[in-house]
Amino acid sequence: MPRDIPLPQGLRPPSRRAQLGELALPFDMLRYGLGAHRLIGAPRGDGRPVALLPGYRASELSMRPLEVWLRHLGYQVRDWGMGRNEGRLAVDVERFAAQASEWAGKEGAPLTLIGWSLGGVIARETARRYPHLVREIITMGSPIIGGPKYTALARRFTGRDFDAYEREIHARNLQGLTQPLTVIYSDRDGIVGPDIAIDIYNPQARNRKVDATHLGLGISPQVWRIIADTLAGT
Which CATH number fits domain 16-231: 2.60.40.10, 3.40.50.2000, 3.40.50.1820, 1.10.3470.10? Predict the structure, then answer.
């Protein structure tokens, strides 16, 4: 059962320093290359179906490195098959659920969903509305609490009632999820504030802090190893 908690207070968007830190992605890529030893001995996959959901304004290409890695481990991996994520949450949840239903039927098993940023929100909402389609959820830097109000992209959503949207998200979160949840977040995230990228609602959620920028989450060896270990049940 989800935790019955009041509307969270004191949430903050990412700091200016963290936002500027996103410009360090080229240096992080070099650092990630030096950290590739983390992947040595990663557990092999069991062949389960896995679907990858990209973040806001990103396409399937953003998830391709992770897709190649998971295929190497032995998972049956698909991208979400819907092109660029344009941020149409309600529409995209229904469109993706239709895809997931078809895939799950072919595979004979529910899907594990891995979502980056807004892709993680879509994964969670798909699991909430269609629990029979989803086996497990892993999110990376996803705005779970509060909505765009606490992200660096808030200015793109001018004219919206952020306070009403925040209450709506809270009410939705209180409905809870039944699937295993792994929630990856970073204090260095310059797009989604770390305060809102954790799960405080579901007791089975495992919040895992990593050292990465938001743009680097999808290529971080630390993140990849957490995902590999999670999928293997370690």
Answer: 3.40.50.1820
